[in-house]
Specification:
With about 290 residues, the protein is α+β, with helices and mostly antiparallel strands. It has helices at about 80-90, 110-115, 125-130, 140-150, 200-210, 235-250, 255-260; strands at about 10-15, 20-25, 30, 40-45, 60, 65-70, 70-75, 105, 155-160, 165-180, 185-190, 220-230, 285. It has 2 domains: about 10-150, no CATH class; about 155-285, Ribosomal Protein S5, domain 2 (2-Layer Sandwich), CATH 3.30.230. Helix 5 (about 200-210) packs across helix 6 (about 235-250). It is elongated, with a radius of gyration of 20 Å.
């Protein structure tokens, strides 16, 4: 079975208002802590933690770990934005002095997994672990998803003509929300270079959506975007912003009209009367 991954590609994740760039290769995460300086980075190499042969089973396939939390066997996947966000928070970046050293390499990184509340052995579950409510997929669920190549990505596309003018934009994305006491929004981009021009417009739409429905999302909202559809002349920033809002409202079954009736979107009002249609529940079109 061939597993599709997004390896060796510069990716982006936004935690609160800070944007981080990173690259994942096998069991190594290279995190650029300053978007304006590619020389400042931290390499987190989980593979070299496994010196004891008894722990080699922890690395079960490329970029994935078998761990335990609350006596449950779990899989952590480095390619999931949720895991990258957890690593960044566990690193406590304020403790690194980049005025003295431009990059750091962490080869003994198991302490990060422990700080995140995971254990390598089922018997070592601690009270601290039991107090955490972060739900991760079980081994069975992850293997099944990989086998079916169905990791809950959906495509939302708008392709219409109005007054002899084309309107074309779309996304392939995945969303996850978990309730918790504090509100956190994370956005991960795994897109090609020629799609970068639309990233800011997408982030604007996500910010508008999250701000409007902030009370609805009391917890952790994670959005992963792996493709942006566009077409010369027919794609514009406002349409990209509009489309991501429509897609997110559809994903979470929220009313898009409350947002998109605003004067800002007046030129796109004609789209408000149109609904997404689908034949397979993974690709939605207007």
């Amino acid at each position: 079975m061939k597993i599709k991954t997004m390896k060796n590609k510069l990716r982006h994740i936004t935690i609160d208002t800070t944007i981080y760039n990173y690259v994942i290769k096998e069991w190594q995460l290279k995190l650029f802590v300053d978007a304006t300086d590619k020389n400042k980075y931290i390499i987190v190499d989980f593979e070299y933690d496994i010196d004891d042969p008894n722990y080699t089973r922890t690395l079960i396939w490329q970029g994935c770990f078998r761990v335990y939390k609350n006596e449950e066997e779990l899989v952590l996947n480095m390619h999931e934005p949720h895991f990258v966000k957890e690593v960044i928070l566990a690193l406590e970046l304020d403790s690194y002095d980049f005025s003295k050293q431009k990059h750091y390499k962490i080869e003994k990184a198991l302490f990060l997994l422990e700080r995140m509340g995971y254990s390598l052995e089922k018997s070592s579950t601690t009270i601290a672990n039991k107090d955490q409510n972060l739900k991760q997929p079980t081994v069975h669920e992850v293997l099944l998803a990989l086998k079916q190549e169905n990791i809950m990505f959906r495509s939302y596309k708008i392709k219409k003509q109005n007054n002899q003018r084309g309107y074309h934009a779309g996304f392939t994305l995945s969303c996850c929300f978990q309730k918790q006491d504090t509100s956190v929004k994370s956005v991960d981009f795994a897109i090609e270079g020629y799609e970068e021009q639309w990233k800011e417009a997408a982030l604007e739409g996500i910010a508008i959506f999250h701000t409007f429905y902030k009370e609805h999302f009391k917890g952790e909202l994670t959005i992963a975007i792996k493709e942006i559809f566009w077409f010369p002349v027919d794609t514009r920033d406002l349409l990209v912003t509009y489309t991501i809002i429509r897609g997110l409202c559809h994903w979470f079954q929220l009313d898009y009209l409350l947002i998109l009736k605003q004067p800002k979107f007046e030129t796109l009002y004609f789209l408000n009367d149109l609904s997404f249609v689908t034949e397979d529940d993974t690709s939605f079109f207007i």
